[in-house]
Design a protein that fits this description.
Blueprint: E1 2-8, E2 12-19, E3 28-33, H1 35-48, E4 53-57, H2 64-74, E5 79-81, H3 83-86, H4 93-98, E6 102-103, E7 111-115, H5 120-129, E8 137-142, H6 152-165, H7 185-193, E9 198-203, H8 204-212, E10 220-225, E11 229-236, E12 239-247, H9 253-265, H10 270-275, E13 280-283, E14 292-296, E15 310-312, H11 322-334
Parallel strand pairs: 1-8, 4-5, 4-7, 5-6, 8-9, 10-14, 14-15
Antiparallel strand pairs: 1-2, 2-3, 10-11, 11-12, 12-13
Helix pairs in contact: 1-2, 8-11
């Protein structure tokens, strides 16, 4: 079985060409700029040319591209957008229009910029250049806050809380197009982009958590320090039983160490994380004692001075593909392979 597993982050898209006939270490892989950075660069190029832009496509991850769009407006230039592309900026289209974006179906007098998390054409081109066929299966991870006209941080954690309350096991965190909740619009947009393929989807956080561990026999705390977000979870008996998420730029190791300790003993609250600018926290069950702490992610160096006994995860010898390995585990779990 072959599959393209893509972990879509704020800085990079980490791609594993999985082939069950090979050892994982021998599978081909790529680490490329994420689509939000590529779209941001295209917007900035239009800004430099003093040209208006027309956003068309599907809802995708924000961050760099949204900042570039706002800078474009700040330069006195026009931004036109379809409704689906505009939801990349905010779910509330009235709020989008208040920023100065004009919602329209077509705009012939502007530079068109397509919004999407997965550029199938670009990936296919790269693979063909290296004499590789595009598999019929894709496994994709994106961070989906969920569609909400209120706080997307609160809404995201309401979703994660429900998933953990229902079990928090790997299989419960994997979706196929037919099972994606209506409000997970970013995942649904990816499924739309890849409508001609077999697709499974996960959130980037759980994908990294399950990808970082080689066994779930013993309790563990797994910390993923990404380019945009930092997520930390308790794993007990192969299930996520507690979790917090923050913005990487807003944390340092002293704060992270404290959060880890309070997560482990059950005293960390949603309010403490949320009021400090993070997404939130939810704890269902805690370990009997402080478990091993496993750290992964492109900014894992932040944990080098931790006061905890840290294990730096590099599954199959490649830390950058942690989320992609978790995606493969998730895909295999749907096929009845409990070990991934």
């Amino acid at each position: 079985m072959e599959c393209i597993a893509i972990d879509v982050g704020a800085g990079t898209q980490d791609i594993l060409i999985y082939d069950s006939e090979k050892r994982v270490e021998q599978c081909f892989k790529m680490v490329l700029p994420s689509q939000t950075r590529i779209v941001a660069q295209r917007v900035r190029q239009a800004t430099e040319l003093h040209k208006d832009i027309f956003l068309n496509g599907v809802t995708m991850g924000g961050g760099p591209c949204v900042r570039a769009i706002k800078d474009h407006l700040g330069a006195g230039l026009r931004v036109y957008s379809t409704e689906s592309a505009a939801k990349t900026i905010y779910d509330d289209l009235d709020r989008v229009q208040r920023t100065g974006v004009a919602i329209t179906r077509q705009c012939p007098d502007a530079i068109p910029i397509e919004t999407k998390d997965i550029d199938l054409s670009a990936i296919s081109t790269v693979m063909r250049l290296f004499e590789m066929d595009v598999p019929e299966r894709f496994a994709i991870a994106v961070q989906d806050h969920g569609e909400s006209t209120k706080s997307n941080r609160v809404f995201r954690f309401e979703h994660l809380k429900r998933v953990i309350q229902k079990g928090g096991d790997l299989q419960s965190l994997v979706y196929i197009p037919e099972t994606i909740p209506e409000y997970l619009t970013r995942m649904r947009a990816v499924a739309q982009t890849l409508a001609d393929f077999d697709v499974v989807l996960m959130d980037t956080g759980p994908a990294a958590i399950f990808g970082a561990v080689d066994t779930t026999d013993q309790p563990a705390i797994v910390l993923n320090i990404g380019n945009g977000h930092t997520l930390c979870a308790i794993l007990i008996d192969g299930c996520i039983t507690g979790i917090f998420e923050h913005h990487t730029r807003q944390v340092n190791i002293e704060r992270l160490d404290t959060y880890i300790e309070k997560l482990a003993d059950g005293t960390l609250t949603f309010e403490e994380i949320f009021e400090s600018g993070g997404h939130g926290c939810y704890i269902k069950e805690i370990p009997d004692e402080m478990p091993r702490v496993i750290v992964t992610g492109p900014n894992r160096y932040i944990a080098e001075e931790s006061r905890h006994d840290i294990t730096f995860a590099a599954p199959y010898g490649d830390m950058m593909l942690t989320g992609s390995f978790g995606l493969v585990k998730g895909m295999l779990s749907l096929n009845g392979d409990g070990n991934g």
